[in-house]
Amino acid sequence: MLRTARRDSVAHMASFRVAFVQGAPRFGRVAENLERGLTLAAGVEADLSVLPELWSSGYVFSTHAEVASLAEDATTGPTARALIAAARRDRRHLIAGFPERHRGRFYNSALLVGPGGVKAVYRKLHLFDREQEWFSPGDLPLAVHRVGPARVGLLICFDWRFPETARALALMGADVIAHPSNLVFANAQAAMLTRSIENRVYTVTANRIGVESRPGGRVAFTGRSQIVDPRGAVVARAGVRETCARAADVDLAQARDKTLTPMTNLFRSRRPRFYRRLVAAAH
Ligand code: ACM
C-alpha cells in the first residue's frame, strides 16, 4: 500500500530542473562577469541555475580597499540587479556568489533570486585561508528556501568540508543543496558525492576554472562542476577547463524519501545524543 502511494506521489510531483554554470570571471570586471555568467546560464533550460562563488568580483583580493570597492549591497548592488533582470527574462531562479557589504562588514555571500526579486542571502560560514583577511564569517542561520516545488539550501565552497552544514540543511528539508564554489582541493567533488549519499539530497556544485594570479596570490581552481543525485550518482559534470552550463532533472520524491530499507529510515536511524560534540563550540 505504502509503496503504491509513494509511486503515485512520484508521478504527480512537479518537475524541477537544476543547472550549474562553470567558467572564470575576470577580477574586478563586475558587469562583464555578470553578463557572461548569465548568458551561459540562459543557454540551458532550468528552473534554478547556480553560478560559482564570488562570480561578480573574482577571488584573489590583494587589499582591503579592493574588497571595499567591489563589495555590494545584497538587494541594490550590480549582482542583485543583474540576477533579477535575468530571472525575469528567463523565468527562473538564480544563485550566484558575490562580495557583500552590510553595515560596515564584508561577507563572502551568495544570492538566491527569482522573478519576484531577492529571496535570500547566504553568508559563507567557513572562510578559507586568506578569505579570513577580507571577510567576516557568515552570521546568518542556515536556511531552506522554496523555489517552485523544490526546497533549496545554500552552502559556499569550503563549507563542503563541514558535513554538519549539509546535514543541517537536509534535516531542515532541503531537496537540493546549491554549492557555488571556487574549489581548490582536488577531493572536494568526491566529498560532495558523499554529502549527497549521506543526506539523500541533490547537490549542485558550480565551480571555477583556471588560475587567478594577482598581487594577493595565485590560486588554481579545479573545475569539474557537477550535479549529484541522492544516491551519489553524478548526473551532470563539466571538465576541468570547460566554460559551460549543464543541467539535470531533479526527482523531488527521491530526495524526500529517506528510506534505505523497509526497516531503515536514514533520519529516524540517527542517534544524536551520542554525537552532541558535533555541535559543541570549538576548543
Ligand atoms: C574556497 O572555499 N573557495 C576554497
TrEMBL record:
Transmembrane segments: none annotated. PROSITE patterns: CN_HYDROLASE. GO terms for molecular function: acyltransferase activity; hydrolase activity, acting on carbon-nitrogen (but not peptide) bonds, in linear amides. Keywords: Acyltransferase, Hydrolase, Transferase. It holds the Pfam family CN_hydrolase. It comes from the Bacteria. This is Acyltransferase.
